Amino acid sequence: MKDDSASYYDSQEFTDLLASYENMMSEGGSVYFDSMDIANIAEYYTISGDLEKSDVAVEYGLNLHPSDPDILIAKANNLLIRGHREEAAVIAESIDDPDNQELLYLKGELAIATEDPQTADFYFTQAVELSDHDPGMLNDIIVKFMDSRHFDLCQKWLDLALLQSPDSRNFIELQADLFFDTGQTDHAIEWYNHLLDEFAYDTYYWEQLGRIYYEKNNYPKAKECFEFIEAIEPTFTSAHMMKAGCLFNMEQWDEAFTIYKSLLDEDKDSYTLLYYCGRCLYEQGYYNEALTYLTHSREMLMLDPDVPQELYTELYFIMASCYYRNGNTDNARTFLYEGLAIDPDDEDLRELAVRILPEDEASIFTDESTPRN
To answer: CA nearest 286: which of 277, 298, 297, 274?
Structure first.
């Protein structure tokens, strides 16, 4: 399999070009650059996430080469990224260069932005043909259709790319990602494993596999994937979190707590970690210790106005259960009612109401068929 992740921007030629441009900018001089060089510098800054530097390069280039198509295309791209679609479209339509592959690609991007994937496909086809089926452009088209969730067109272009470059690591990875995004998990597993045959230390592939097995409720297999990541990159926090999730779902409460607690030491006010620490202790019968974490979790939740109400419901159920099992009926009732106020139809809370409340009071939230313990 060919590792084709390198691009022109990784080349020594571009490194020297960028250094020359940046030296000029830092020293305040003025140096002549070819229009395509300026367009490439602007695009490099754009894909690096530095739009302000890209804008500066564009304006410098237009001073040297007024109305140059490639520099104008770079300017339109920046406008489109910022959401200024109409302004970008005006620039695109002002360029009279029908055989410019970058212009055709830009028009395809504009079509996607207006939810017109078929027109985008039309422009992209012309652009690719003019580029002599450039792999970089094929990659960009596939990603555009994937990001916009036009999966049928994404698969069409992937078929073309893989036919042209069947051993391309990049296209194989994109195919695996497409299977992942469209829920074709068995195919995704096969393709990620194919990648791992040659790139065994790429944590991204292990993480994707782990997530698939996790969603399949195959927690032992998922745990193995996250352990591979830990061996490769010991500081990979999300792998620790996912491994703890596997242990949690396998009801290995003590091991899960150990991981959650170690992560909490680095992020002491995380309401998620506080909740899971409390939940693991609750499941082991350590109700007082659990309440310490759960109470702090509630305090942190209340500071975040965007927290979904469902999280409160789950938290209040566990807190009410802890107090009930500790014999603190008053506090148990308090948190039971807090939860039922949010979701009176929650089954766990309704069942707990039967245990905690007098029969006439519990009947408000339950029907007569609900068994009492």
So the answer is: 277
**What are the residues facing 355 on neighbouring strands?**
none
Instruction: Tell me the C-alpha distance between 172 and 59, whole Å.
Output: 38
How far out from the chain centre does Cα 168 lie? 24
DSSP 8-state code for residue 366: S
Backbone angles phi, psi at 250, to 5 degrees: -85, 5
Distances from the Cα of 191 to the Cαs of 151, 230, 321, 333, 366, in angstroms?
17, 22, 45, 52, 49
Question: By CB neighbour count within 10 A (0-12 exposed, 13-18 middle, 19+ buried), where does 272 fall?
Answer: middle
Confidence of residue 307 (pLDDT cuts 50, 70, 90): confident
Helix (H) or strand (E) holding 288: helix 287-301
Confidence of residue 368 (pLDDT cuts 50, 70, 90): very low
Rg, the chain, Cα only: 28
Place of tokens 């603190």: 328
Confidence of residue 364 (pLDDT cuts 50, 70, 90): confident
